[in-house]
Amino acid sequence: MPEGPGSRAMTLRAFGHRGARALAPENTLAGFRMALELGVDGVELDVHLSADGHVVVMHDAEVARTTNGKGAVRKLSLEQLRALDAGGGCGSPFGGERIPLLEEVLALAKGRGRVAIELKEESPEALGPTVDLVRRLGMQRECSLLSFSPGLMEEARRLGPEIERELIVVMPIRQVARARAVGAGVLDLPDLFVTRGVLERARDAGLLVGAGITNDERTMRRLAAAGVDILYTDRPDLLLRVLADMGLRPAAQSPKAVD
Predict the structure, then answer these.
(1) What are the 10-residue block averages of pLDDT along the chain, 259 residues in total?
(2) By three-state DSSP, how is residue 182 classified?
(3) Could you tell me if residue 1 is inside a domain?
(4) Pseudo-torsion of CA 156, 158, 162, 167, nearest 10°?
(5) Residue 240 in contact with residue 255, Cβ under 8 Å?
(6) Rounded distance, CA 202 to CA 123, Å?
(7) What is the Cα–Cα distance from 243 to 250, expressed in whole angstroms?
(8) 36: which of 45, 126, 143, 174 lies 20 to 30 Å off by Cα?
(9) Pairing assessment for the beta strands 55-57 and 114-119 based on DSSP bridges
(10) Residue 40 is part of a domain; what is its CATH number?
(11) Looking only at Cα atoms, what is the longest distance across the chain?
């Protein structure tokens, strides 16, 4: 039997990956707003530094895949980046969405949900300004810093020791010890590698376990039943409904899934 909403429901966090990536353009204010309005515990995003030193929200180092522009984020000024359409163009209901500043997303989420900020290995210079922004908005307890890079996690511990850290790994072999060594409190895994043994080793090391990116109902149910602490999804609408069906979420917070 699943535990009721008074127990694990308070600890299992549902996160919208890059906002609500399957429902709205990724890493846009529209997507983050949608995820928060659905009732997620938090949103995940990625950061890079613009040519003139602004922390912007973008997954790729280049803008071509998600906007109507070309070029590397680090070689474009904020003015140039803001001129791009990140919402799919005039044929999309989200046309005209702009690349957001991290500060804008933090302001949107403050008091409404957590923000998981992924630090990219190709943009390590974004770490310091990111920590500064989180502190300036007083959101140290509402944010976490994520990375595939143990080196960036060590630097994050040095610069922002009070901010939760998550080490993202591709495979769990020997990664529990590495996560602890770099001061991470969370180990993020692909859903395929979440097993009872991995969960036990993580628990024994004092780590929480995050899993994703999880977009199908069967996998969501398996991971929630296994006892993961964080689930990342492009389909926050579906995840919230599944958790409510399992008794891990108040039904009032369970939106109707989009087909």
Answers:
(1) 40 95 98 98 98 98 98 98 94 94 98 98 96 98 97 97 97 91 96 93 96 96 96 98 92 63
(2) coil
(3) no
(4) 30
(5) yes
(6) 29
(7) 8
(8) 126
(9) unpaired
(10) 3.20.20.190
(11) 54
Paired tokens of 1:
């039997």
**C-alpha R_g of the chain:** 18
**3-state SS assignment for residue 254:** coil
Q: Give the chain's domain count.
A: 1
The SS3 of residue 111 is coil
Residue 26 placed within a domain: yes
CA dihedral 5, 10, 12, 14 (to 10 degrees): 90
Q: Among all chains, which residue has been given the structure tokens 């997507």?
A: 31
Q: How far apart are alpha carbons 70 and 89 in whole angstroms?
A: 15
As a whole number of angstroms, the distance between CA 124 and CA 121 comes to 6
Using DSSP, state whether 117 is helix, strand or coil. strand
Alpha helices in the chain (DSSP H): 29-38, 78-82, 102-109, 127-136, 150-159, 175-181, 196-204, 217-226, 236-245
Residue 119, SS3 per DSSP: strand
Q: Domain span at residue 242?
A: 8-253
Query: What are the catalytic residues?
Result: 17, 59
Instruction: Kindly state whether residue 53 falls inside one of the protein's structural domains.
Output: yes
Element (DSSP H or E) covering residue 7: none
Q: Which amino acid is at 115?
A: V
| Tokens (6 digits) for 150 | 């143990």
